[in-house]
Design goal:
This is Drug resistance transporter, EmrB/QacA subfamily. With 503 residues, the protein is mainly alpha-helical. It folds into four domains: 189 residues, Growth Hormone, Chain: A; 56 residues; 204 residues, Growth Hormone, Chain: A (Up-down Bundle); 42 residues, no CATH class. The chain has 19 helices and six strands. The strands form three sheets. A two-stranded antiparallel sheet has the order 1-2. The protein has a two-stranded antiparallel sheet with strand order 3-6. A hairpin with a 3-residue loop joins strand 4 and strand 5. Helix 7 packs antiparallel against helix 8 and helix 15 runs antiparallel to helix 16. It is globular and about 60 Å long. The two termini are 28 Å apart. The relative contact order is 0.13.
Length: 503
């Protein structure tokens, strides 16, 4: 590990404000387009199948570039790559804002996807710059902000399009993103500790190949059919490339993603939980507003407008943000693993309520509040678990992979939900209410599995510290940072060779 040049450090509260603005801008942009996709389709004169590429291209690009930006941040400086991510996202917003045909719009959305790296980079900067005791709260708050930005996007999408037109779905994020990039450039401190090595571009190409194959297959499966030759070929290619990628990474001198790190129980178990949580939350964001907007004459739905359905989702947004703010302090008292278990089960109750009580507005407000409380606890705790499980110089890439896993889970969950809902549709008619009920019942089961998977995560140890620099906490009984920053695993929970202080 090498040290970056010494520079004047910005106060961590100012640092948090800049990071929060950048992450909120990305989350805001991600959710703005979803509820008004039919409007974009009509304005650009495209088909329903083609316009879905506005969403698909974006999350594929985000999945590919998130771990790469995380690794580059660990190597060359997290501030530098945070600014690059925001600047690229702003360029993508500009392309989409001036687009007059679907192809330019999709190119803009691909470029915007590079900004997905700002979330893991933000976690890494927090770990580098914040006092250790404040890291869990700050990470939880940033995780909560992703939901806040996403919820605000759902609420404002309709009014923005009605008042100014769909182009302003990109002009508004462009303005916010440019301001965020300027603030980051002048206010954020650069990383002091940088990891050695270089980007393994062969590994990056293999990672990109299997991610594109997998996400493209699951996102298009509801349209092409799960048993179609195209979907099966893409899935097969994804499996083959993933296997080759793992072998290549295991043998690389400077791997893009350290396979030793991925074998740490705290890392793979947390990623397993994230996969299930991603499937649940992305499906809810996509299909609960759709259910609310359905006409009551179809036998389900409330006939809400885009704006009204967004307002009904507001309690979820507020609850996720509020619980994200307090989750760090709760984790110190109850343990992050326990918060994941409780949060998953609380959201499972919310999804079960969707099945039995989605025919009145007051019930929807209650349901979205319950969902938000559960997701706020779970996602904030997951972010802290990943940050705590790896050495500081691997925070960016570990958080990037975790964000990727969430995206993959979201793609699989959304595709599964789409297949269930559309499969229940009557010929030539809208999706049947039984399809929504079945889909949310399946998602309830997914959240129960998330709670069970969380039990595999090692307990957080909150009563001991080790000498690994100032104010560094020993977090997991199976994962210890010994002097020099080496990551080791211990069956007993004692850090091998490390000296402990009493708290």
């Amino acid at each position: 590990m090498r040290q970056s040049p010494t520079e004047r450090r910005t106060g961590h509260r100012s640092t948090f404000a800049v990071l929060a603005l950048g992450v909120a801008a990305f989350a805001f942009l991600q959710s703005l387009v979803n509820p008004v996709l039919p409007t974009v389709q009509a304005e650009l004169g495209s088909s329903q199948t083609d316009v879905t590429w506005v969403l698909t291209a974006n999350f594929i690009a985000a999945s590919v570039f998130t771990p790469i930006l995380g690794r580059l941040g660990d190597m060359t400086g997290k501030k530098r790559m945070f600014v690059v991510g925001l600047g690229t996202m702003a360029l993508g917003c500009l392309l989409s804002a001036v687009a007059t045909d679907l192809s330019v719009m999709i190119i803009g959305r691909v470029v915007q996807g590079v900004g997905g790296g700002v979330l893991p980079l933000a976690f890494g900067i927090i770990r580098d710059e914040f006092p250790q005791r404040e890291v869990p709260g700050a990470v939880g708050a940033i995780a909560g902000l992703t939901a806040l930005g996403g919820g605000v996007g759902l609420i404002l999408a309709g009014p923005i399009v009605d008042a100014f037109g769909y182009h302003w779905l990109f002009w508004v994020p462009l303005i916010v993103t440019v301001l965020s990039a300027l603030a980051a450039q002048f206010l954020l401190p650069e990383s002091r500790a940088l990891s050695a090595g270089s980007i393994n571009w062969i590994s990056a190409a293999l990672l990109s190949g299997w991610l594109v194959g997998l996400l493209l297959a699951v996102s298009q499966a509801p349209t092409w059919g799960w048993s179609s030759p195209s979907v099966l070929a893409l899935l097969a290619a994804a499996v083959v490339l993933a296997v080759v990628w793992v072998v290549a990474e295991s043998r690389a001198e400077h791997p893009l993603i350290d396979m030793t790190m991925m074998r740490i129980r705290a890392v793979w178990a947390t990623n397993l939980v994230t996969l299930a949580l991603g499937a649940a939350v992305y499906s809810a964001l996509g299909f609960l507003p759709q259910l609310l907007q359905a006409s009551p004459s179809d036998g389900h739905g409330l006939g809400a407008s885009v704006t009204e359905s967004g307002l009904m989702m507001l309690p979820q947004t507020v609850a996720v943000f509020v619980l994200g703010l307090v989750a760090g302090r709760m984790a110190l008292r109850f343990g992050s693993r326990n918060l994941v278990v409780v949060g998953s089960l609380v959201s499972a109750v919310g999804f079960l309520l969707v099945v039995v009580a989605h025919d009145s507005e007051w019930a929807i407000y209650l349901i979205t509040a319950v969902n938000g409380a559960g997701f706020g606890l779970a996602f904030s705790a997951v972010a802290n678990l990943i940050v705590a499980a790896v050495p500081a110089h691997q925070t960016g890439v570990a958080s990037g992979i975790n964000a990727n896993v969430r995206t993959i889970g979201g793609a699989v969950g959304a595709a599964l939900m789409a297949s269930i809902v559309s499969g229940a549709a009557t010929t030539g008619g809208p999706p049947g209410g039984s399809g929504y009920a079945t889909g949310f019942l399946v998602l309830t089961g997914v959240l129960v599995l998330s709670a069970l998977a969380a039990l595999l995560i090692p307990e957080v140890r909150r009563d001991s510290r080790i000498h690994n620099g100032p104010d560094v906490e020993m977090r997991h009984p199976e994962v210890a940072l010994v002097p020099g920053g080496t990551l080791v695993e211990s069956e007993s929970g004692s850090p091998p060779g490390g000296r402990q202080n009493e708290p």
